[in-house]
Amino acid sequence: MVLSLGGSPSHPPPAPPAEEPVFEAARARMVRDQLVSRGIRDARVLAALGRVPRQEFLPKPLWAEAYEDGPLPIGHGQTISQPYVVAFMTEALVLRPRDRVLEIGTGSGYQAAVLAWLVAEIYSVELLEPLARRAEATLQRLGYANVKVRAGDGYLGWPEAAPFDAIIVTCAPDQVPEALVDQLKVGGRMIVPVGSQGAAQELVLLRKQPGRLERQAVLPVRFVPMVKSGG
Ligand code: SAH
Fold it and tell me: What is the pLDDT of residue 1?
């Protein structure tokens, strides 16, 4: 099956990096066996995950495991998310090519790279400066020009660039941060793992309607906690 992103992209796609064919084959298997088989249906989302070279977001010793079905360590006690969770969260946001998206928890930059295929602009905030700088360098090297990375506290969002069409939070706060709700457009969606450390977390999908917030728990998950800076 050939997957197409459909329509004309709102920005020139990045030049594909030269990679060994073994990675391309493993990635195609990942899309089929981990995503399609578990119910990911959005063709644009499948195509994006079929394109981003996940190995490039990992330390070299882990490249052979790049397309396995789980999270992997990226240093500083943090992890790159499981491909299925990346696909699930991305699909739940129902993204359109002109959208501007806020991500909290840049980590390796992999989720941001997936989003880069699907929307116009991504603003990504990472608390840990060395991870922010490394993700920024990786994204730049691979040609993802529509992602902006900032080192800072994601609880505060990115007010200067708000409002956003969609917000994706990839670390777990114990409650939905108010500042993020404020920075979401009316009609916009946010997906966020909510739950305290050690306790069960639920992926929560929020839809901002005029004067109210719709809330739906969609998947039990396990993310690293969202850390409050200075506290
Ligand atoms: N989306 C990432 C995976 C995220 S791991 C990827 O694709 O690789 C979660 C990240 O959230 C970690 O890098 C962690 O440092 C970061 N984080 C934790 N608390 C944060 C906060 N308050 N603001 C911004 N980032 C935070």
Answer: 43
**Nearest atom in ligand 1 to 105's CA:** 11
Residues pairing with 167 in the sheet: 102, 190
Which of 76, 171, 183 for a ligand 1 pocket mutation test, highest count of atoms within 8 Å of Cβ? Answer: 171
Q: What angle do CA 77, 80, 82 make, to 5 degrees?
A: 130
Per the CB < 8 A criterion, the answer to whether 204 and 194 are in contact is: yes
Q: What is the pLDDT of residue 91?
A: 98
Parse the chain into domains and list their residue ranges: 2-221
- The reply to whether ligand 1 has any atom less than 6 angstroms from the CB of 224 is yes
Q: Is 177 in the pocket of ligand 1 (CB under 6 A)?
A: no
Residues of the chain whose pLDDT is less than 70? 1-17, 230-231
Q: Answer for the pair 91, 118: CB distance below 8 angstroms, yes or no.
A: no
CATH number of 2-221: 3.40.50.150
